[in-house]
């Protein structure tokens, strides 16, 4: 599997060196509120659910958005470990990333406007099983952290623009 990753990424890297404009991509998702606080989201051909625990008015049928952020960070880290290790010929037997986010509900519930509504802190631990040298794996970890897209998104400000479109129910009947 690492060889497939290495070949795929090697081909992509060469293609982007030849035509850097191809490196600019966009990803899209659509999320629709359903019953209660359940949300159905779609990305490409994939669908997944969001919900909140009972404590926050949900039925606890699926992870909530902030839990998906933690899972996305862990998944991104693991993927980047595999990608870089494959390109560099580093053997990884397994990679497990444990993430935790600390959130004060007073911010989310509007009880204290001095408390942010999102995570106040995110911590993660990466557990690697490998016979490679500690120095090599520590250098790999530094490189992973430097280029992991989700780590970049959650650790640095990113420009976000929102737009509200209002449609009247009678306008939807055709």
From TrEMBL:
It comes from Sphingobacterium paucimobilis HER1398. This is Osmotically inducible protein OsmC. PANTHER family: HYDROPEROXIDE REDUCTASE. It comes from the Bacteria. It holds the Pfam family OsmC.
């Amino acid at each position: 599997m690492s060889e497939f990753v290495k070949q795929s990424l090697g081909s992509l890297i060469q293609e982007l060196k030849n035509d850097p404009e191809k490196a600019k991509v966009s990803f899209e998702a659509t999320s629709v509120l359903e019953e209660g606080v359940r949300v159905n989201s779609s990305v490409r051909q994939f669908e997944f659910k969001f919900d909140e625990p009972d404590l926050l008015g949900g039925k606890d049928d699926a992870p909530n958005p902030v839990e998906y952020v933690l899972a996305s960070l862990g998944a991104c880290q693991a993927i980047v470990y595999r990608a870089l290790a494959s390109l560099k010929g580093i053997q990884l037997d397994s990679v497990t990333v444990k993430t935790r986010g600390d959130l004060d509900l007073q911010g989310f519930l509007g009880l204290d406007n001095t408390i942010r509504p999102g995570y106040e802190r995110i911590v993660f631990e990466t557990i690697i099983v490998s016979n490679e040298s500690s120095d090599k794996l520590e250098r790999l970890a530094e490189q992973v952290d430097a280029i992991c897209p989700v780590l970049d998104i959650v650790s640095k400000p990113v420009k976000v623009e929102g737009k509200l479109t209002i449609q009247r129910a009678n306008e939807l009947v055709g």
